[in-house]
Structure to design on (223 residues):
């Protein structure tokens, strides 16, 4: 996209609002895209390469920088833009779901962003004594099929927030939410750590595609 076209696009966005701007044009605004080396539309080539916005959104900064035409600065701008969008959505859901009354509440809060991830992410809802949400934190990000999460990282965040309870949530990129034996073992480990620290593990929820499994409902978490 030539400089004059980019400036025209910026003017359109300011005058008409970004709602009328296409995905390709929005991407061009973020990265300041001009023409690619082949003379084509760089923003369109990026979207095609990553298989759409969903694929681009889950790509790492290193994967973005590996694309010919996306440098370090543009890749970091893209990652920051996607992260801001995610945080905006999560913040809106946190305002709507202030108290976790059932596993479905926790799943509704985090499933929309976690079901599309191509790596396992562990997140935690930190709760007060009435199961009100104090904070949502990311505990660990793993490989394509596993996330290494340590009790230290989880309970450090819980203590800092003066949390009385925790709901762990993690995704299965395969789309199957059935807990593995490793998931069950890890859950019981967190239960024991929580008992020692006086912070209750309320539930551990596994998200896979459009479904979720509550380990408390399954009886994996005792009590």
């Amino acid at each position: 996209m030539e400089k004059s076209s980019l400036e025209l696009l910026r003017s359109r966005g300011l005058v008409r609002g970004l709602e009328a701007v296409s995905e390709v044009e929005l991407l061009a605004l973020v990265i300041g895209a001009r023409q690619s080396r082949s003379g084509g539309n760089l923003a369109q080539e990026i979207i095609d390469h990553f298989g759409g916005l969903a694929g681009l959104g889950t790509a790492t900064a290193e994967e973005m920088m590996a694309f010919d035409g996306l440098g370090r600065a543009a890749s970091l701008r893209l990652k920051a833009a996607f992260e801001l969008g995610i945080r905006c959505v999560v913040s809106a859901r946190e305002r709507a779901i202030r108290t976790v009354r059932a596993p479905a509440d926790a799943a509704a809060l985090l499933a929309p962003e976690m079901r599309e991830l191509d790596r396992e992410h562990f997140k935690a809802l930190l709760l007060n004594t009435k199961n009100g949400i104090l904070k949502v934190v990311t505990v660990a990000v793993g490989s394509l099929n596993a996330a290494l999460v340590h009790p230290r990282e989880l309970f450090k965040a819980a203590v800092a927030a003066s949390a009385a309870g925790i709901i762990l949530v993690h995704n299965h990129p395969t789309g199957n939410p059935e807990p593995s034996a490793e998931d069950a073992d890890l859950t019981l480990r967190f239960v024991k750590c929580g008992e020692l620290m006086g912070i209750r593990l309320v539930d551990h929820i596994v998200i896979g595609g459009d479904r979720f499994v509550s380990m408390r409902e399954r009886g994996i978490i005792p009590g």
About this structure: The chain has two domains: 3-87, 99-214. The mean pLDDT is 84. The longest strand covers residues 133-141.
